[in-house]
Amino acid sequence: MSTATLNQYTTNTASRILAVGGYRPSKRVTNDDLAGPIDSSDEWIRQRTGIVTRQRADAETSLTDMALAAGQQAIERAGLEAANIGAVIVATVTFPYPTGSAAAVIAGELGIHVPAYDISAACAGYCYGVAQADSLVRSGMADYVLVIGAEKLSDFVDPTDRSISFLLGDGAGAVVVGASEEPGISKSTWGSKGEDWDMIRMTRSSIEMRNIIQEVERTGDATAIVEPGSQGSVWPTLRQEGPSVFRWAVWEMAKVAKQTLANAGVEAEDLAAFLPHQANMRIIDEFAKQLKLPDHVAIGRDIADAGNTSAASIPLAMHRLLEEQPELSGGLALQIGFGAGLVYGAQVVRLP
User: Fold this and answer.
1) Residues 146, 85: contact at Cβ < 8 Å?
2) Rounded distance, CA 186 to CA 35, Å?
3) Which residue among the candidates 127, 280, 308, 319 is catalytic per the annotation?
4) List 31, 127, 277, 280, catalytic entry
5) pLDDT digit string, tens, across residues 117-159
6) pTM to 2 decimal places
7) Active-site residue, 277 included
8) How many whole angstroms separate alpha carbon 338 and alpha carbon 106?
9) CB 350 within 8 A of CB 177
10) 123 is catalytic
11) Given 123, 127, 280, 319, the catalytic residue
12) Is 308 a catalytic residue?
């Protein structure tokens, strides 16, 4: 039997976020644009969500177009070249191909041959990506990791659905994680509650879509596949149990946020910023109340004119906050994502 000793990655390196980049589509979609099909109004949407407008990409702009733009900006702001990146992680639930990954497309566009993979963790995907990038850097497996949250949710919207359609926007945010002399990313608090998987879901699976297509091809009758209450939509779209999701987010995720602060060894007053997933302004406000955030803590409120961009929402909120308040750079921020799965993830990070 061989007595050879395996080489293993071991370092004492800490990690931090070095830079953030963002891409926002130019198309603005107002509440009035969406209110008709859901028999609603601008006032109703504002009161329940805090959203005034949301940004959506045009048909010619793909998810990978947005992700690449955000990633390139983050790399440039970190003072790096694409060749310095040792891994690419893309958090998304809207890349239209089950395989290969959006991350592989991005790596190819950047001209680098590095590990590249997607994370399907919905609105917690970016925080999952940061957790993995932190581990890759601290283990020595990569010097720099590009983490991108990117969504084109408008491709999966049923405009007649009152549960979620008016919330959703498009966009991409990215960060570069690299080595640091001092810890810049805390221990992650992450997990799932899969028994409530169906609280946020797609209306149809790929297998169901295949069966529908085969039935139409066999019979030539498309009307037979329209289910009651489907509004005639065959394409799979997003739907949620709004009240149940709201209660889970407000009460359970506040506990996760508090645990994350405790794990990081910091108090709410030590924070410079709070960057929650941009799900709903009422949820954000309730978070701030339960965490007893002091007045000096800046709160990311990107949802008002970006909408809910799922995995892109936290890095986009960070991007905007630092653009508007650059003096926050170097301060500590609590970031927390939560969504379909149900899944959640959170860290305290030092702002780039």
Assistant:
1) yes
2) 42
3) 308
4) 277
5) 999 999 999 999 999 999 999 999 999 999 999 999 999 888 8
6) 0.93
7) yes
8) 25
9) no
10) yes
11) 123
12) yes
